[in-house]
Amino acid sequence: MKIEAVILYSTNDSRFFKTCIENLLNSDVKCHVVTYSHMWNGTPENDTILRNSQQQFIDNLNYNQYTLQWNNEYNPWYWEGIGRYLATQQVSDDADYILYIDIDEIVDVELFKEFIYKKEYTKYDTVKLSNYWYFREPTYQADQLENSIVLCKSSIAKSLPPMTGGREIYFQSSDNKGYIGEDNPFIHHYSWVRTKEEMLNKVKNWGHAGDRNDWIDKVEEEFSREFNGKCFINNYNFNKVENKFNV
Asked: CB burial class (10 A; 0-12, 13-18, 19+) of residue 192?
């Protein structure tokens, strides 16, 4: 089975870039990375970081990077949806599945290759993959799993029209869907592993920025003290673990 990945990348997540891409490439997964000319609040992206990121894999035929020209006519959900749609259309015609993963989500190469080899996912058209979830530091791991990463049959994903929204549209594109990985997760999700500045940038720019009006207050309160073992996102409890990928 041939899997290719569609990955959204903002320079606010640059600390995860190299490990995320290397681990996917080392798992024999071709990478299609989507970047934007601006952050989703209108702040220009850091072109130097974007160019340096691309340069790291410029000679790898399994790495492609695309840049969308942003404008403020549309909301973040539009840009998230259109970015994944355009990259999906660049996926090779002989790819069997597309992995919808973000740059702050890192696969464990050995376990991911075992997952690909076993082919359990081929029973389904679309799959959600369980992942470990972290907050503030890469050593604070939630005691509950998440399943935000989506694997979708390429033939289905490429037939979908452009749509506004997140990865859920790919998961919901077929009734034949499943959940895999709860017994042995192989993806580590560092979306909320941030400095204060990075976390403020995140809540100002991501698709959920408009869902509530106290994001900034929550971040300010979080960094006014030491970590108390809870997160303001979903109130998970956390265990102390090793920094598995040195991110």
From this structure: buried
